[in-house]
Design brief:
Elements (H helix, E strand, L loop, with lengths): L4 E5 L3 E6 L2 H20 L2 H35 L2 E4 L10 E5 L3
Antiparallel strand pairs: 1-2, 2-4, 3-4
Helix pairs in contact: 1-2
Length: 101
């Protein structure tokens, strides 16, 4: 899923860029939920928000499972380097997996 990550492969390495959009969407959902719970105290809004939030988290989790498995295997082989920040749009968190020769 290109919304959550972007994977590019060359002859020497594999680059996986985790996009920060989903983290900001989750933070926004939590903020809206807290605003509703603490200020508005509206049960119908909460009943709408929570299932949407849960579905989004589950979709994000399963979209990133394959990436995390690939990274864990490369970590065990010592072939991973990281760069960037999870929250940066200009310098997103990037895994670089070097291929075995």
């Amino acid at each position: 899923m290109t919304f959550f990550f972007e994977r590019t492969e060359t002859a020497q390495d594999i680059r996986i860029v985790l996009k920060p959009h989903s983290l900001y969407i989750m933070l926004g959902m939590i903020a809206v939920w807290l605003l509703n719970d603490l200020v508005l105290q509206s049960a119908p809004v909460s009943q709408l928000l929570m299932p949407v939030f849960i579905v989004f988290m589950v979709v994000r989790f399963f979209a990133l499972v394959k990436v995390q498995k690939e990274v864990l295997i490369a970590m065990k082989k010592g072939q991973v380097s990281t760069a960037g920040s999870k929250f940066s749009f200009t310098n997103p968190f990037t895994y670089t997996l070097t291929k075995s020769v």
